[in-house]
Amino acid sequence: MVSVDEVIPLIESYRPLNPLGEVEVSLKEAIGRVLSRNIFSPSNYPPYTRATVDGYAVISEDLAGVYEDRPKTLKLVGKVATGETKLLRLERGQCVEVSTGAVVPYPADAVVLIEHTHARNGEVEFYRSVARGENIDIAGSDIAEGEVVAWKGTIVTPLLVSVLAAVGIDKVWVYRPVRLGIIPTGNELKTPGEKLEYGQIYDSNSTMIYAYAKSIGAEPKIYPRVHDVVEEIEEALHKALNENDIVATIGGTSAGLEDKTYRVLSRLEPGIILHGVREKPGRPLAVAVHGDKIVFALPGFPLSCLLTVNLYLLPVILKLQGTPKSEVPTIKARIETPIRGEPGIRVFVPAILKHNGEMKAYPLTGHSGRVSAMSLLDGYIIVPEDTEHLPEGTEVDVLLNPFQKNYELNIIGSHDPLLQSIVANLPGYDKVRMVNVGSLSGLQALKSGVADMAGTHLLDPATGEYNLPIIRQLDIKQALVLIGYKREQGFIYRKNTELVSSFKDIVDKHLRFVNRNPGSGTRVLIDHMLEEESRQLGISPEEMKKRLTGYTFEVKTHEAVAYLISRGIVDVGIGVKYIAERYGLEFKPITSERYDIVIRREAYTNKLVSQIIEKIRNLDKATLPAGYSLDTKTGTIIEL
Amino acid sequence: MVSVDEVIPLIESYRPLNPLGEVEVSLKEAIGRVLSRNIFSPSNYPPYTRATVDGYAVISEDLAGVYEDRPKTLKLVGKVATGETKLLRLERGQCVEVSTGAVVPYPADAVVLIEHTHARNGEVEFYRSVARGENIDIAGSDIAEGEVVAWKGTIVTPLLVSVLAAVGIDKVWVYRPVRLGIIPTGNELKTPGEKLEYGQIYDSNSTMIYAYAKSIGAEPKIYPRVHDVVEEIEEALHKALNENDIVATIGGTSAGLEDKTYRVLSRLEPGIILHGVREKPGRPLAVAVHGDKIVFALPGFPLSCLLTVNLYLLPVILKLQGTPKSEVPTIKARIETPIRGEPGIRVFVPAILKHNGEMKAYPLTGHSGRVSAMSLLDGYIIVPEDTEHLPEGTEVDVLLNPFQKNYELNIIGSHDPLLQSIVANLPGYDKVRMVNVGSLSGLQALKSGVADMAGTHLLDPATGEYNLPIIRQLDIKQALVLIGYKREQGFIYRKNTELVSSFKDIVDKHLRFVNRNPGSGTRVLIDHMLEEESRQLGISPEEMKKRLTGYTFEVKTHEAVAYLISRGIVDVGIGVKYIAERYGLEFKPITSERYDIVIRREAYTNKLVSQIIEKIRNLDKATLPAGYSLDTKTGTIIEL
């Protein structure tokens, strides 16, 4: 096991990460690539002394002391149009007519604007004097022949292209791109677009790595996925090694596979140079060297894979392509909640950044298997190796996500299809980040400051009232509540199942139940109903829960409930009517719950927030999704 | 004439800038393009409840209260490998062996790590309890089917690609790219790679626009250049209009051409909608509309062209491609020198940004014909329309160059080939920005804080000493002087010219002289020599200067002197031996001048500066360029 900072130096000690070679390409093809040679200007710029206005080229001393009422006449000895290459000369007392961009004849040192002159009979009368150098642009005054116009290692940008073209360059030498072979491994993988069985998962890492490699100018290729069989891994690896400079295998997630990949890599020469990094996520990274080729065996969990790609694979590619700056950028931010470290391990915590007075970083919850975090996270909070605990208020380094987007509004809370469709139809919808974490986590995110709005449907069993009692218990300051709409909750089951209208039915019919996660509004409802029914049955709620198969089997969304039921993994659950209908399932109503939205006071004046409020106030009963309803309170604002 | 802020709204009033259409592409092809539809997840993620470690799936309540010394045995009823799709079940008192990534059988709600168990004879002994949800990843817990995973208008990044692939998406709808036709116009233009006559200039704008358009995903095409002829312009324009959504003609610089382009554009329907913007540079911009196509007639001077491309052409393309955020970003910075505004005109001053304690902006000198500024500038200082004068210390808005590079060291001053080659061979060479402005401007840049090092060769006529007296007169504080090397200066002329060894020779032989710019070290030498010679001849220095043809014809570099002589535009000048030899010219030595380097004290500890000092101290006499020499003082540091 090595530390994060040792990985690249260790690779370099086996195989120096110098550019792989250079190719000469046209200027157009060079865009985004890295110059492999210093470029010395082959010419002077401008290449000739030129007029910057239409007028008369003169020797400025000839017009010294000339004014409107004391004009002077010079002899007109010729005319130069733009693009003309014949060389005129002039002498003291003479002038030459020139167009903008035309050659200024030697030794004229200024051009007088045509509007300050009057020409007649081969002579020109001047009404103004002119300063030396006025309205001319002298040959070589901008770029001298032989001057370095671009250093090697420079990325060819549109601006550099302009400079190179101006001095006449049409071809440049650039470092050749790295060829990267990507091999997804694992029996459980399917390719996006294929049909998935329960127990299989789409390979998302290959396309992510492909996209990153493309974005830095490399030449990636995804190889067919490989099963958990030594011979298959070995054959694919050697084919990819023959065709590429670097090969990235992406671990399936099974331990057996890791062992097999390891066995194949250890047969390379010199073989595995590191296995395991003291970091989290991303610990299982292995790197092997084979001659001058490098193999990265990347972990399979998306966030682990992403982190090792950012920390090691991309910097190595950039170095091999000659890009001098290959470090991932970091910024400083303050944390609002304490974060635990792990002794000896550098922990990277996926986080959202938000400027609340100063830059603050909020950890995204969830483990490295989360893929939704990919498009939500702004970066990773770095918890250094020597840190057991980062207290609230600590200033931390945040490793930036290279494709960070600026969001204006964070809506974090319970997922609701109607709220989502309202946001989707706003003009500024793309500035909204919606994170679905459930009602309670949403309210906590609002309290900490990261969420601007939080959708919630939490029943207070004591009062039978929705949302407000819980919001008040949480002591959320500086917030308002927008009263939303009602959603019908009920039992959901497959159409061929016998009617379910109570938990007793589920127990009696030996059906498999699927529960929701603690903190969700639906879970509060479920527990409340179980207590009521157990009272009626004269047993303890604990006994009732024990009898209910699957009470401890929790999923996090309405959709997951419906999905597991439709797949036949479970038989019955509780959720909203809208989702039941979408999955073609039976729905037996239980109650109507309130879905309200809490708004951070500071965000209340935000234009997007105003638009959302307006949309909710103008909801049309006729076009609401199944199971939704409005009442007279919908759209009112309550001060906390 | 309209204001800067009116241009795009005016275009929109004739032709709404909505996306042009959409196309369905593979995820790989979509990278960098803009989604034209909201993407709802077609599946739940993870698609099944999976184990995140190797171990045994259990119902957590079965292991309540289990410890090392109070183990419990469960019946082993099966095994699920990763990728297996057969559906196992278990009951209370049972467990199932699972691999990382394998399906967790219903209703197991946790997985116990294999190292906390012991298996034998179809049973497993457990030595630890487990929390509900531990080591499992529940179906749909991350992304719910139907959840928006990406809004329309989002740019497809590698991270988004990962999320989309994870939910099984392999194709997406994106806005179709804008087709842009680029037509360079002007008789003086040549294409880079072609041979240039004196009076001709390379077309650099077309490739710059091409590169910018490419970088934002458009499909640009450069058409053959067009001469200053109405019929040619008209034919090219109509061909390009047929094949593209937008056409950009790039003005030659001559006034006649502008008129002709204008005449052609006015025949379109509805025709020219604006001609002239109250901005500088970029004033001559014209825009025409033809049906639903747009024509931009861009100014020809590189910096004017660049600015109008950034302010108008690129935002219009981005809007037509559906990118929601199309504004050019600005930042705040403080100016160290006053800047003049122009009433009614928004002035954009090319500038270098530097963080000296706070962000500061330093204007780059020179007019809009400068092309070298392109790769040096960090942005433009914006001087608003209502401003006559921005005093020193004002906080200004700086329009950022979209391809800004971070430099660590600014070397601004007199161009010296030896210093340049020293820098070119440093490991961190690409972090150095070298700007060649002459000795005096370099010292002023150092005094103001923008330059970290300034190379200088300025003779003090009073003492006959180089550099130090002038540096002291300028009262540069907080700086050190690194004593450099000597360079031979002399008369330069073509090999077939009669020997020149004085200014009297030049006058007597009626040769055409080329002078250097005021502020350059060479100009100080020239004026000093002219005074000496005129004294010997018994005439006034003014008379001597009058007799010298070309005294008022100034160029800014040694290379330009040599170039004009080699081209036969002039006959003689003064410059360093090294350049004379490179151009194959005769060199008659006059004197050896000192080339020293002034270093800002704060930059003295910079690693690159230390390396440059070290290289100068270790220069080898044997490998110096022609005309260079060292002495005992070379490499010493003098405190000011």
TrEMBL record, chains A, B:
Molecular-function GO terms, alphabetical: molybdopterin molybdotransferase activity
UniProt pathway: Cofactor biosynthesis; molybdopterin biosynthesis
GO cellular component term of the entry, any: cytoplasm
Gene Ontology BP terms: Mo-molybdopterin cofactor biosynthetic process
One Pfam family named in its UniProt record: MoeA_C
Keywords annotated in UniProt: Molybdenum cofactor biosynthesis
Domain MoaB/Mog: 181-319
PANTHER family tied to this protein: GEPHYRIN, MOLYBDOPTERIN BIOSYNTHESIS PROTEIN
Protein name: MoaB/Mog domain-containing protein
